[in-house]
Amino acid sequence: MADILVVAEAAEGKLKKTTHSAVTFAQTAAKALGGSYSILVIGSGVGEAATEAASLGAAKVLVADDASLEHYLAESYAPTVADLGKSFAVVVGTASAFGKDLLPRVAARLGAGYASDISDVLTEGGKLTYKRPMFAGNAYGLCTIPTAVQVVSVRQSAFQPAEPGGSAAPVEKVSVSAAAGAAARVEFVSLDQVKNERPELAEARVVVSGGRALKERFKEVLDPLADSLNAAMGASRAACDAGYAASDLQVGQTGKVVAPQLYFAVGISGAIQHLAGMKGSKVIVAINKDAEAPIFQVADYGLVADLFTAVPELVKGIQATKS
Amino acid sequence: MKILVSLKRVADPDNANKVKIPPSGDRIDTTGLEWKPNPFDEYALEAALRLTENGQTPKVRAGEVVVVTFGAKEAETTLRAALATGADRAIRVDSTDDKLDGSTVALALKTLVEREKPDVVVMGKQAVDGDSNQVGQMLAEYLDWPMATFAATIKEEAGALLVGREVDGGVATLRVKLPAVVTVDLRIVAPTSVYSTKTAATFKYNDGVRFAALPAIMAAKKKPLVEVKLGERVSAESGALKITYSGFQAPPARKAGIKVKDVAELVQRLKTEAKVL
Ligand SMILES: Cc1cc2nc3c(=O)[nH]c(=O)nc-3n(C[C@H](O)[C@H](O)[C@H](O)COP(=O)(O)OP(=O)(O)OC[C@H]3O[C@@H](n4cnc5c(N)ncnc54)[C@H](O)[C@@H]3O)c2cc1C
Ligand SMILES: Nc1ncnc2c1ncn2[C@@H]1O[C@H](COP(=O)(O)O)[C@@H](O)[C@H]1O
Predict the structure, then answer these.
(1) Which of B19, B153, B206, B270 would you mutate first to test chain A, the one with the most A CBs within 10 A?
(2) Which of B42, B77, B135 to mutate to test the pocket of ligand 2 (most atoms within 8 A of CB)?
(3) SS3 A50
(4) N vs C: which end of chain B shows fewer Cβ within 10 Å?
(5) pLDDT, tens digit, for every residue of B184-210?
C-alpha cells in the first residue's frame, strides 16, 4: 500500500478549490512512497466535478454519485470514503469545514490515526512525517501515524493548489456503501449561504480584515477598500461575535487560516488567536490608533491612525496609483 | 435530558509567557503558561446547562449534567469549577497527555458513554493546545451516533436537536435524533443560541458563559467527583496511540516591520517597495 486517496470537495456539482491543495499533498506523498494518487469525487450530480478532477494528474478518478448523497452529511459520506480508503496508505482532504467534519469520522471508521490541519509533509526515508501547527500557531508538532491507513487533512493556505494539465485520468464509477445506524438518525434541514461576490477568503491574493473598531460601519468603511483591490473580506472574532461581519469571515486559530500576498488588519488588536490565522501572509499592513497594539509586532507596515479617516484616504491613494 | 460534557485542562496559549520549545525540540515547554479549562469546553458546559434548564431559573436542572476530564490530579480544579457553575457530577479519568491522543480519548469516552447513557455528549470543537479538532467526530463514529459539529445554535425538540453549524459560506442546519454528539463553536454562547424545550422563545441569555457565585463554589465542594483509572472501568482498547509526536519546532519569527507616517507613505511603499499594488 503506497497509494494516496484524495477526498475531493464538491459544491453545486463543481469541484471546490480546496481539493487542489490536497492534491498537491498527494503528489508529494505518492512520490515519497513510490505510489500513485487517486481522487474520490463524492456527492450527487458530480459528473462535472469528476471531469475537473480528471485534469489533476491522478492515476484514477473514482466517482461515488448517488441521490442519497445530495446533501453532505458525514454519517452518509463516511462509509463510502472509508470502504474505498481501506486500500490506500493515506486518505487526505483539506481542512475546510467539510474536511474537518468528515475526515476524523472516516479515520475512526478505519481504526486509523488522524493528523489534522497539517502545514507540511516531510518525506525522509520514504516515511511520511507531518508538521502541524499547535497552540494557536505558536509551536509546530512533527508527528507520524502508525496505523495501516493514515488519515490527514491539509491546511489549504500551506499547500499551493495543484494546476490542471496533462492527459485526463480515467474516471471510474464506484458503488456507494450502505449507511446505516447514525445516518438514519440525522437529517439535513437547510444550508443558508451568505451571499458573497468577493473572492474566497482562503484563495484571495489580497485580504482586508476588520475588527471590533469598525462597529456597525464595517461594510461601509471596508467595502471600498476591498473593492479597490479585488480583495476577500475577513474579520476578527470580536467583529463576528458582534454581528458586524458574517461568522464565516472569521480569520484565526479557530476560523479561517489565510496566507495572501497582502493582508490588511484594520482596527484589529492582534490577539494570538487572530495572528494564528494570518501570520503566514506575505505582506501585512496594520491600521490601528493604538501604537502599542500587538498587531504591529507582525505588521510589515504599520499605520497609527484613526481608521475612519485613514481607510477612505487609502482607497483614494490606491485608486490614484491605478489611474 | 442527561448530558455528558468533556472538559480538557489546557495550558493557555493566550498568555504573556509564550509557549517555548527547548533546543532539543523534544517537547513543548509550558512552564509559566496559565492552566485553564479549554474555552470551547467551557462553552460546551454553558450549552449543556442551557439545555437542562428553562433560562428563568438557572438553578433548577431539568436532567443532569455530568462532566468528565482525562488528566492528572490537577485537572480536578477544572472539574470543581464546572461543578460550581452548575454541573451535577464529575469524573476524572486518571491519565496524562502523553498517553492520550484523539482516538484514545474518544474510545475511552465511548466506554464511559455506554455506562452513563447520556442523551447527548456536548464538547468543544477543539482543544486549544493541540488544535486537533477530532475527538467529537471520532466518538460519534465509534458509537455509531449522529453528530453535529461546530454548533453555533442548538434548539431542543422532542427526542432531537436542531443544530445550526458554522460551515464555509454560511450555516448548515441539521436535525439529529438523540442520542447524539454535538461539538460547539464560539458563538454557541451568544444570548439566543441555545433553547431547551422549557425555555421561552423570547428568553435571552447574558452573552458568554455564566460565572459561579461564591456560595456555589462552596457547595461544589460537596458535589460528587470520582476518579477512575484509565484501563479499569474506562478503557481505550489497547491504549495504543494512533498519532505520535517525534519533535516540536518554534514557528519562524516574522521580522519586525516599520511604522509609516501617513497614508501617502503607506501607498508609496506598498507600490514600490513591497510591489503588491
Ligand atoms: C477559544 C478562542 C478562540 C478564538 N479564536 C479567534 C479567532 O479565530 N480569530 C480571532 O480574530 N479571534 C479569536 N479569538 C478572540 C481573540 O482573543 C480576540 O478577542 C479578538 O481577536 C479581538 O478582536 P479585535 O482585535 O477585533 O478587537 P479588540 O481586541 O477589541 O481590538 C480592537 C482594536 O481596534 C483599535 N481601534 C479602536 N478604534 C479605532 C479607530 N477608530 N481607528 C483605528 N483603530 C481603532 C483598538 O486600538 C484595538 O486595538 C478567540 C478567543 C478564544 C478564547
Ligand atoms: N484530555 C481530555 N480530557 C477531556 N476532554 C478532552 C481531552 N482531550 C480532548 N477532549 C475533548 O475533545 C474535544 C476536542 O479535542 P481535540 O480533538 O483534541 O481538539 C475537546 O474540546 C474536549 O472536550
Answers:
(1) B270
(2) B135
(3) helix
(4) C
(5) 999 999 999 999 999 999 999 999 999
